[in-house]
Each structure stands twice: as C-alpha cells, then as structure tokens.
Design goal:
By secondary structure, the chain is mostly beta strands. Helix content is 5%, strand content 64%. The chain is built from five helices and 49 strands. The chain has a 29-stranded antiparallel sheet that branches. The chain has a six-stranded mixed sheet with strand order 9-10-15-16-13-14. Strands 1, 4, 7 and 8 form a four-stranded mixed sheet that branches.
Amino acid sequence: MGSIINKKRLFSFLITFISLACAAQNPAVSGKVIDTNKQPVAFANVVLKAVVKDSTFMRTSFTDENGHFEIASDPDQKEYTLEINTIGYESYSAALEITANLKLPDIVLQASAKELDGVVIDQKRPVVTRKIDRLEFDVENSILSSDNAWEIVKKTPGVIASSDGLSIRGSSGILVTINDKKVYLTGTELKNLLENTDGSNIKSVEVITTPPAKYEAQGSAVLNIKMKKNIGGGYKGMATGAYVQSMYPKGVVATNHYYKGKKLTVFGGYMFGSGHYYGESKGDVKYFDANGDVSSTWKSIEKSNYRAKQQNSYNITAEYTIDSLNTFSAGFNGFQSLKSTALVDTPTYIYNSSGQLDSLFTSHNHRDYPEKNSTFTGSFEHKFNATHMLVLSSDYTSYYTNQDQDINTAFSLPDAAPYRQQDIQSDDTRRIDLLSVQADYNGQVGTTRIEGGMRYGKVDAENNFDYYSEIDGVPVPGNLSNMFLYDETIMAGYIGADREFGKWGFKLGLRGEHTKLEGDLETTGEVNSQNYFKLFPSAYALYKASDNHQIGFSYGKRIIRPQYGMLNPFRSYSTPFSYTTGNPQLQPTIAHNFGLQYTLKGKYMFGAFYRYEKDPFANITYQDYATSTIITEYTNISSNTSVGAEFNTNVELFPWWEAGTFLTAGYQQNSFQGADGTIREIDRWTFYGNTNNRFMLNKKKDFFAELSFFYSSATVYGAYKLGDISSLSISFRKRFWKENGEISLIFSDIYRGERQTTTTSYANQYSSYRSYGDTQSFRIQFRYRFGNQKLQDGKAVQKTEEQNRL
C-alpha cells in the first residue's frame, strides 16, 4: 500500500498547484446595474458577445448583491454586444468597443410591464433529438420535470431499469455521468442519489451507445444527465421525506442546499436511509447418472432479509471563480453504511430418483457487512479565449468493506432430529485506494472543433480473507484463508475532431490506453500479471437530407474491465454446498459497436445495431459432481453477439395525454466453454417494449398521473437462459404552495411481474432459480423546495472508471 502514499502526495501537490494557477488578465468591462429607484439589481444575467462574423465568443456572468459585475473580453476581439436581463425587468442591450479595461456608467433597468404574479410557464412534452454521437431526451419544463432523476432516467428511450440496475441495449456495463462527470455509486446508492435529485433542475438525458474518444474506454455505453445552466444567484434548498412499503417498511430523508455568489458557489447534501429489504429465490438442481437419468433432485427456498439501519451519504463542493477565465473547485463526498446485516435462511430438500424425500439440510446465514467510502476531488478550468479551454482535475478515493459471515447448517433425515451440525465462519476485509489525474483540452480551428487529453489512474487493493469450519465442534482440515493484493496502473491519451460540410457532419476520435496490473495471491504465491496497450477508435457521420429526414452512422471500440470483486479468488458461501468465487485470471472484454440511425420528422426514430464482444466475462454456475456443490465462478466466455433494430417516439395524443414508446427486437448469441470442456452456443431472439403515459388531470396543471409498462422477453447471458419479465407501475403527483410543495404516490410492479427464472441446462448440468427482488412497493413522498428555485444544482463531482469498478 506504500505506493499509494506517494500518489496521495501527488494529489495534494496538484490541488495546491492548480489553486495557485492564475492566467494573464484580458481587458474587462465592469459596471453597476440599478433600477429606476436607484436600487441595485442583484443576480441579473450579464452576457458579453463578440459581433464579428463567425465568432463564437460569449462570456456570461451576473451581478452581485450590490449590482456590480465584471467580465473579461477576448484579446482577439474589439466589438461586442452587452446584454443584461432578469425577471421583472425589460432586457438591456448595448454595443461596446473594448481595447482596454472599460468602466461603464450605471445601467438602469426598466420594470417589466407584465404582471409577474400571473405568469405561467407552459409545459411542453419531452423531445427526443438525434445528434451525431448520441440521443438526447429533453425534459426541461415538461411534465416529467416533476419527477426525480431516477424516474426520468427510467423513462428515457433506450434505457432499461430493473432491480439489477440500468442497462442499454442489453448491456449493464454502462457509465452514468452528470454534466459529463462520472458518478461512482453502487446500484442502490446510485438509485438513492438519483431519487433525491430534483427533476426540475434537469435539462436533458443523453444516451450515448457509442461514446466518443473523450470518454474513458471502459464501459459499453454512457448515460449523461445534463443539468440546467445557471440563470441567477442566491440560495435555494430542498427537503425530501419518503416512506416505502414493500414486503417490509423502509424510509429516507434528504436535504440539499445550494448557494451561488459572485465568486463563490457552494452546494451540498445529506441523505439518511433505513429499512428492511427482502429477496427470495427458489432453486431446482438435478444430478444425472451415467445413463442420463435423474439420480437426485435438490430443491431449495432461499429467503433473504437485509437490514440497513443507518445509510448515510453526503457531499459538499465549493467552486471559486477567480475571474471569467479561471475557475477552481474542490469537493468531498462519501457514503457510510456501518450497521447493515443480512439473515438468509435456506432449507434444501434432497429427493432420490423415485421422487421420494431422502434427506434435507437447513442453513442459517448471518452476515454483517459495514461499508464506507470517501472521495476528495479538485479541478481547475482555464479558458484561453472563446474557443480554447483547458481543464485539470484529480481525485482520490478510499473504499472499505468488511463482510463477517456465520453459516450454521443442520443436516437431518425426513421426520428426524438433526444428526449433524456444521458451522462455517469467514471474515472478508477489502481496502481499495484509487487515484486519478487528468487534463482535457477543447478548442476550435476554423470551423473544426478539436479535443484532446491525458489521464493517469492508479489502483491499490488489499483483500484479507479468514476462514474457519467445524463439524459437530470438530475443526475441518484444510485452510481456505488467504490474502490477495492487486495493483493496477492505466495511462491514457485521446484526440478528437468534428466538422460539418453542408448537410454532412463528421466526427472522428482515437483513444489509447496502456494498462499494467498485477494480482498476487500471497498464500499460494500465485501471481497474475498483465501488460497491454490498446487503441480505441470512434467514427460518426450524420446526413441531414431535409428537415424531415436524417440518417446517421456510428462505430466505436470499447473495453470492459472486470470489477475488483470479480478478481477476488476467495469463496463466499451461502450454504456448505453453494459458493461464489472470483477469478484473478479474468481478461478484459473488447467490444465493437456499429449503429445506423434514421429520424423521420424529428420525432420518429429508427435504428439498427450490431455488437460483438470478444472474451466477455460472466458468472457461470456449474455443478461439481464430486462434492455435490453448486459453484458460481466469474470466467471469460468465448464471445457475445447482438444484432437488432429499435424504434422510439414521444408524441402528444391529446392536450392532456402524452405517450412515449420504445421498442427493440433482435438476436443474441453467446459462446462459452461448458463444465465438460466443450465449446457451446446459446442463442435467442429477443424483444423489449416500454410505454410511458403521462396525464394532466386538472386545468391548473398541478395534478398529474402516469402509467408505465414494460415487457422483456426471454434472453441469454453467458450460459444462462433468462425468462421473460414485465412490470406495471402507476403514480400520482400533486403540487401546492405555489408549486414549492409536492406529494407523490407511486405503485411499482403492481402484479410482481419482475420475477425472473434463470436456467442452466446442457450435458449433465441442470439448475434453475426463480428469483424476486422486492420490486413490488408503494411509495409516498413529500418534497418541499425553498429559496430561489431559478438556480441550478451545480457541477457534479467527477468520478473515474476505477471508482465505477468497485
């Protein structure tokens, strides 16, 4: 772990360096804005634009509490337009020539003739736009803006949300970003974050199925949430409380606060959650004799009760604007769940070849698993002029988790007292330190936009596993205890350019990443080393035949690296005859994505896609006949191929009824090496459909209802055949107190359609599990906003690929 200390020093040095960085001052224009009563107008928007043809120069600022403002100009420009506007006043505009620092006389704004109390912002339907490298779902001022971010993401075309998380085109290896800044959180933590992000601050959601070179090569797709731009200053806040009833109750309270001054912006939040979660899985495992006949059948019913008594997440970020060209920010965010436990009861019944109960055993698994992580971030942004910008950023993350497990199993014959007791105890402690340093440049040469950057990432991980087992009080020989050390370094660089030629638009990019890693299993002395360099090209073309017809093409090469837990070779037992283990020999997956898109009349979007993955990794379940044990192990399968077509639209059926529809159909094929050593293929035609209907229930436009339904047909994953699932959800929302208050009622998975069957069936292997993940629920939520709600929530804290793999 010593090497990470030097990285901490490097991180501290970078923060110190960028905080002292200061660019040369350009000529600036300053002044004071007042009203007709000579009172200062605070937090008015101030915009400085160059008037030279083909110039894209624009600077924005706002007045402080005393009405003062200052904006730096571009040394390459002289003629500008100054615009000032704010709610309640007529807009102001004036032509300026700036060759040196310019101090303007007081600017007087005239009160608007409109009666502000009667102003109503008309709501529009969400708009889906196809851009050259992404699909943008614009929800600003739509009915969906009353939702939280999680509900908006669930309704975004092309995004599939389930109890297992988010996926795009059947792949769950996606990166979630806010304002192009990565968000690291686990599935439940990510959901909690988005559920407590106010949808009224979201401008749009971008679905990037083929990410360009500026994004890290890790992950199959990117989901980017774009927040609204700043339109004022001051303070705002939000408080939320929610009660959820599924199998058991749970609740969450959260508060977010945001302040924007002339130079300093501070935003932060805190969330506390507590609850009881339920899971259920019914298993059916068959063993065969040499003739292929069933020799025994094992049936189990696993019931899981998870209790998270104290889940705490918190964040704070400060951003300081040195001047209009230089901005520095630093932040801290963390998550703690120190009192989380799980009780898993699994009775297993063993039947002989005649179907008669032969024996049984019942396992009681008690787990304590405290978890915490902390991240420190820093960034410095410098604008050389209107078209050239450099961003330096760095972050450090410390992650810790400890799983203390005690499994007690009683073995018995039918209608008899237990004849044997087995106890398994294990303690799995994991510590991971992550460091990232990055530089990104954006510029423009003529009409060609260019970008480039470099990145350094470092990972140090330590897993310490202690194991003990006894039968009837007598220790079992054999020691499974071990220590696993993991070290990884990634150096990356990228370049990209895009330009338009008449009706054509093109975008090209190339990213290179050098990876060096070493996994050391100390007890056995086994060392796994990898050292490789790979290039990741991307290319896009978009042809706008007319306003009604648009055709696009995309290609991108990606890499999907395994999460660190997948590399951990230790055994995590659920019963004495069932365990999951990682694989330090896992190789990264290389994916090639091809896409073809056609947009009709700006609202009907058709697409076709082809995806090929080489050496994808998956958790494969197989039966060890020698020990009658079910083993789930992460391994690389040979390949994964997906091809299909998709359609989405969002239309207004009536003034009070909007509907969004997403459909996709295709073919998926996996090749894998079975437990018998034979290369096998598994394939399936698949279909997914999702419709979201939004209803306005009154003339005041403050009472809404939504009805959502999705259906996912049977599909394949690795060696598994996954059964079909579906879900119906209904929600009602009512706003009051001048739309600052809102109460919501949400009914999810009404008929428990999200139960899913997972089956492995080939050669002498057969196992089937039908699982349910506590998705049927009723949620009542109250949210209250206060302060100046014209403010944006601010920039998101940047998160790295390494953090996303924790």
